[in-house]
C-alpha cells in the first residue's frame, strides 16, 4: 500500500541540532507534499512552538501537539481534538510524588497550549529550549494555582533527578488516570489516560480515512516509540534511543545528517 501520510517528530528528528530545517530536508518535504502526501509534525511542542519553525518546514496543514493530545490545523487554526489530564489525576500525582521525592515541581499547560502555569521555583531550572518560552515569562504560581484546572500537558520536574530517574518513582506510586512519557527534555510529560503520539496519530488518520499501513513515521525519543510501532513503516533516527530503534522497522541517518530527507528521497524519487 502506498504512503499517504508522513508523521514526523521535530526536535532530534526533522530538525538539526541547531533547530534548523536544512535545505535538503525542505526539498524532500515539498516533494512529498507535491506528490499528494500529508506531512504532519507530531511533537511534544505546543502549537506556538510548531509555528516557530513552520515557515522553514512549509507546515501549513495538520499538526499533532502535546505528544498527541492536541490536534490542530495550522492554516485555519481549527482545533481537531484535544484531551486533558484531569484535576484529580494532577492532585494525586502532586501529593504523592511530593511526599516520595521532595523538591519536585509542576507546570500546567492549558488553553490550547497558550497558558503556561509554572510552580514557584520552576523558572529557575528552565531554559528557553525546554518549552520554547523564556524563563522570565513563566511566572511563579503557588501549587494550588498549577493544579486548579485540567492540563493538555502536566509537567513534572526535579532539580537533580533526570526523567529516567524520576519515572520509576512516579510509576512506583501505581496511581490511575493518566499516561506519562518523556521526550529527551529534562522533565516528565503527563498526559490524559491512554494518550500518546500513536493515539493522536490514529485519531487524525481516522478523520482523514487513512490506514495505519499508509503511514510513514519518524522519531528519536521515548515518546516516539509507540508511534513508530503503530505506523505501517516506522523509521528511527541514527541518534535514536534504543527503545525507539527496537520499535522501528528501519534505521536512517541522524537528524544532523538529514536522515528524514534520505528516506523521503528514496520514497519519492
UniProtKB/TrEMBL annotation:
<dbReference type="InterPro" id="IPR036412">
    <property type="entry name" value="HAD-like_sf"/>
</dbReference>
<protein>
    <submittedName>
        <fullName>Cof-type HAD-IIB family hydrolase</fullName>
    </submittedName>
</protein>
<keyword id="KW-0378">Hydrolase</keyword>
<dbReference type="InterPro" id="IPR000150">
    <property type="entry name" value="Cof"/>
</dbReference>
<dbReference type="GO" id="GO:0016787">
    <property type="term" value="F:hydrolase activity"/>
</dbReference>
<dbReference type="Pfam" id="PF08282">
    <property type="entry name" value="Hydrolase_3"/>
</dbReference>
<dbReference type="InterPro" id="IPR023214">
    <property type="entry name" value="HAD_sf"/>
</dbReference>
<dbReference type="InterPro" id="IPR006379">
    <property type="entry name" value="HAD-SF_hydro_IIB"/>
</dbReference>
Amino acid at each position: 500500500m502506498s504512503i499517504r501520510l508522513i508523521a514526523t517528530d521535530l526536535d532530534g528528528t526533522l530538525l538539526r541540532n541547531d533547530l534548523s530545517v536544512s535545505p535538503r530536508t525542505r526539498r524532500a518535504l515539498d516533494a512529498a507534499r507535491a506528490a499528494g502526501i500529508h506531512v504532519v509534525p507530531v511533537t511534544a511542542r505546543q502549537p506556538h512552538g510548531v509555528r516557530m519553525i513552520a515557515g522553514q518546514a512549509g507546515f501549513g496543514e495538520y499538526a499533532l501537539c502535546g505528544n498527541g493530545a492536541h490536534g490542530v490545523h495550522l492554516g485555519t487554526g481549527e482545533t481537531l481534538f484535544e484531551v486533558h489530564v484531569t484535576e484529580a489525576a494532577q492532585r494525586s500525582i502532586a501529593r504523592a510524588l511530593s511526599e516520595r521525592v521532595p523538591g519536585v515541581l509542576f507546570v500546567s499547560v492549558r488553553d490550547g497550549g497558550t497558558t503556561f502555569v509554572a510552580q514557584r521555583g520552576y523558572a529557575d531550572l528552565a531554559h528557553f529550549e525546554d518549552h520554547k518560552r523564556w524563563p522570565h515569562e513563566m511566572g511563579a504560581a503557588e501549587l494550588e494555582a498549577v493544579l486548579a484546572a485540567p492540563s493538555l500537558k502536566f509537567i513534572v520536574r526535579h532539580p537533580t533527578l533526570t526523567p529516567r530517574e524520576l519515572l520509576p518513582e512516579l510509576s512506583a506510586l501505581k496511581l490511575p488516570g493518566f499516561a506519562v512519557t518523556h521526550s529527551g527534555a529534562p522533565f516528565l510529560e503527563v498526559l490524559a489516560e491512554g494518550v500518546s503520539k500513536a493515539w493522536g496519530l490514529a485519531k487524525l488518520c481516522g478523520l482523514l480515512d487513512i490506514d495505519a499501513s499508509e503511514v510513514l513515521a519518524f522519531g528519536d525519543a521515548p515518546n516516539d516509540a509507540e508511534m513508530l510501532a503503530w505506523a505501517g513503516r516506522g523509521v528511527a533516527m541514527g541518534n535514536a534511543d534504543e527503545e525507539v530503534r527496537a520499535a522501528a522497522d528501519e534505521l536512517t541517518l541522524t537528524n544532523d545528517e538529514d536522515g528524514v530527507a534520505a528516506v523521503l528521497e528514496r520514497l519519492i524519487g
